[in-house]
Design brief:
Largest sheet: 6 strands, antiparallel
Strand content: 35-45%
Strand order of the largest sheet: 1-6-2-3-4-5
Shape: globular
Order of helices and strands: EEHEEEHE
Helix content: 10-25%
Number of strands: 6
Radius of gyration: 11 Å
Structural class: alpha+beta
Number of helices: 2
Amino acid sequence: MKTIADLQIGERGIIVNFTDEGLSLKLLEMGCLPGTQVTMTHIAPFGDPIAVKVSGYVLSMRVDEASTIVVA
C-alpha cells in the first residue's frame, strides 16, 4: 500500500482511498478526490511539510496527513 507520503519529487499517483475517515472529509474538501492524479512537487528540508499538485493547484500538507491517502 503506497501513500502520498511515499512519493518522491516529480512522482505521480492516482488517489485510490483514505485510511482515516475523520481526516478524509477535510481532504475531500481540498480536492483530494478518489481518481484524481497527484504529483509530488516539494518536500521541506526536514521532510515535513510536503506539497503536491492536485486539481490544478499546489496543496501543502503534513506528512501524517499525506500518509492517510492511498495512491496507485
